[in-house]
Amino acid sequence: MSDLEPTRARPARADARRNREKVLAAACAAFTASGGTVSLEAVAREAGVGIGTLYRHFPTREALVEAVYAAELDDVVASAAELLDELPPDAALRAWMERYAAFVAAKRGMFDTLRAGWESGSMAQPATRERITAAVATILEAGARTGSLRADVPADDVVAMLLGVFFSATSGNAPEQTTRLLDLILDAVRAPTR
């Protein structure tokens, strides 16, 4: 290969991709379950890989936390369109709000690491709110077209209400209250019946 030819990164081997996915899944489960600091050794053990494999993919705790956050955010955002393919818009919105609530709950165990990384500049501040708002807008627009959801409710208002519900949940409120509050949000954006 001459110096003028572009270098191409080789795609990761299938086993390396599987190991990375197993580490991400184990880390997500551990962060969700613990609500606090998680041992990277425990994550590796749960994933069925050695600690060296974990560090090959994620050289720092921050890199692992950032990757879990990004993967989960991608899933939450993508689930809006997937749910619209399966459900009427109002039911899709309710199911999506549950998915988003699970995402927020899972991030509680990672929040200190995320915040420290964002504040130090070692991790890029994601455009989380914009992406979540776009997902909500997709569902609201579909609902407005079918007449099941109000056309006059901005997606950012729905996101603001959701954030209020999730903040309330961190204050020790029961999960049943979160469920009731999500139902109230859905009631607020449903189109009035004629």
Return Rg in Å: 20 Å
CATH superfamily of the largest domain: Tetracycline Repressor, domain 2
Fraction in beta strands: under 5%
Mean pLDDT: 85
What's the N-to-C terminus distance?
71 Å
Q: Give the count of structural domains.
A: 2
CATH topology of the largest domain: Tetracycline Repressor, domain 2
Q: Outline the biggest β-sheet.
A: none
What is the CATH class of the largest domain?
Answer: Mainly Alpha
**How many extended strands?**
0
H/E element sequence: HHHHHHHHH
Any descriptors?
194 residues, mainly alpha, Tetracycline Repressor, domain 2, 9 helices, 73% helix
Structure report:
The chain is mainly alpha-helical. The chain folds into 2 domains: about 15-60, Arc Repressor Mutant, subunit A (Orthogonal Bundle); about 70-190, Tetracycline Repressor, domain 2, CATH 1.10.357.10. The chain contains 9 helices and no strands. The chain has helices at about 15-35, 40-45, 50-55, 60-85, 90-105, 110-120, 130-145, 155-170, 175-190. Helix 5 (about 90-105) packs antiparallel against helix 9 and helix 7 packs across helix 8. The longest helix has 26 residues, at about 60-85. The protein is elongated, with a radius of gyration of 20 Å. The mean pLDDT is about 85.
Draw up the topology in text.
Elements: H1 14-34, H2 40-47, H3 51-57, H4 61-86, H5 89-107, H6 111-120, H7 128-146, H8 155-170, H9 175-189
Helix pairs in contact: 1-2, 1-4, 4-5, 4-7, 5-7, 5-9, 7-8, 8-9
Quick recap of the structure?
This protein has nine helices and no strands. It is mainly alpha-helical and 194 residues long.
